[in-house]
């Protein structure tokens, strides 16, 4: 991992995401952090650049990754995708205020981005504090892992922090609990890619998959939740990222979307 992009708008959520990014990349000075400010209407670019410079001035330290600022006019997703190609962005790290569980029809800038952008995204809830990364829960569906390259991001994070990875699969009924041919294939893939950082896999039953994941997080004190959206399908069809959207809105644990 060499290049990390942080969409930034001076909100508390984006400032918290930047704080997390600094901790996430400490002692990795070879990593470049790109702070991206997107605007649609005309602005005073010099004023924005000065404000960004003031924000990053407090992070000047030899052990902190170099922070570069980018100010662009346009829409968030096209701008990020263009920068991904231009700069070789490996990860987008994005803050979110989130939403309360039970709120209906809510969509945030971050949840929309995660749903539409096809690249690895690390979502940092505004309430996430006290950086630590020793345990990662990867929630995996019952479909076979098609894009194994997505696991390289998870492996990179695990290696740098020595974090163990627990695999969690939530089933809606008892009849689906147990190893299928897809489960066996995924098990072999995970053990191969995650090396010594693979810990174990749990199968649990809950009619509400989100609730099952959240309950597991509460009892296992995870530092990060990860999801591979393409393994979570409904009757063989993609659910249009609904579970990922819900988790993005409701999680209080940093969420790594491996897309």
UniProtKB/TrEMBL annotation:
<dbReference type="InterPro" id="IPR006016">
    <property type="entry name" value="UspA"/>
</dbReference>
<feature type="domain" description="UspA">
    <location>
        <begin position="1"/>
        <end position="125"/>
    </location>
</feature>
<dbReference type="InterPro" id="IPR006015">
    <property type="entry name" value="Universal_stress_UspA"/>
</dbReference>
<dbReference type="Pfam" id="PF00582">
    <property type="entry name" value="Usp"/>
</dbReference>
<comment type="similarity">
    <text>Belongs to the universal stress protein A family.</text>
</comment>
<protein>
    <submittedName>
        <fullName>Universal stress protein</fullName>
    </submittedName>
</protein>
């Amino acid at each position: 991992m060499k290049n990390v992009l942080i969409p930034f708008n001076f909100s508390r959520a984006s400032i918290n995401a930047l704080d997390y990014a600094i901790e996430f990349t400490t002692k990795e000075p070879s990593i470049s952090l790109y702070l991206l400010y997107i605007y649609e209407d005309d602005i005073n670019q010099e004023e924005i650049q000065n404000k960004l410079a003031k924000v990053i001035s407090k992070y000047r330290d030899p052990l902190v990754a170099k922070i570069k600022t980018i100010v662009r006019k346009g829409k968030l997703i096209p701008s990020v995708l263009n920068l991904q190609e231009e700069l070789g962005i490996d990860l987008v790290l994005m803050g979110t205020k989130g939403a309360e569980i039970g709120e209906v029809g809510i969509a945030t800038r971050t949840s929309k981005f995660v749903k539409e952008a096809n690249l690895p995204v690390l979502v940092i809830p505004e309430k996430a504090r006290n950086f630590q990364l020793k345990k990662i829960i990867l929630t995996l569906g019952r479909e076979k892992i098609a894009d194994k390259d997505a696991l390289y991001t998870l492996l990179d994070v695990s290696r740098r922090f020595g974090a163990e990875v627990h695999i969690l699969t939530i089933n809606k009924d008892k009849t689906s609990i147990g190893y299928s041919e897809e489960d066996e294939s995924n098990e072999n893939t995970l053990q191969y890619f995650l090396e010594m950082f693979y810990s174990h896999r749990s199968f649990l039953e809950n009619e509400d998959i989100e609730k099952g994941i959240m309950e597991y997080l509460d009892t296992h004190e995870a530092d990060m939740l990860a999801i591979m959206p393409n393994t979570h399908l409904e009757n063989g069809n993609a659910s249009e990222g609904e579970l990922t959207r819900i988790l993005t809105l409701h999680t209080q644990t940093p969420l790594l979307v491996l897309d």
